[in-house]
Specification:
Layout lengths: L1 H23 L1 H10 L25 H18 L4
């Protein structure tokens, strides 16, 4: 059990590093998205508000609510969950 938890931990950390890298370099993110075929290949890129009002580089409650609204509108507009 411990090794599975560790592997999951490291996998999540890698995802966080990738997300941080991509959010730090929006042009790189857009290029990768385009190179992978974008929406025509079922990939979606939602640009949400960057809010660190919660302190320590985390979202605050207001930021979470705003991003939730943005993602909901994005998913609805694109018809992703229809």
């Amino acid at each position: 059990m411990r090794s599975i938890a560790k592997e999951g931990f490291y996998a999540n950390k890698d995802k966080e590093r990738i997300a941080l890298l991509l959010s730090s370099f929006p042009a790189l993110t857009q290029n990768i998205f385009n190179d992978l075929g974008g929406e025509e290949n079922g990939l979606y890129l939602c640009k949400a508000t960057n809010d660190t009002g919660g302190g320590n580089n985390h979202l605050g409650i207001a930021g979470q609510n705003k991003i939730a609204d943005e993602i909901t509108a994005f998913v609805t507009e694109k018809g992703i969950l229809n």
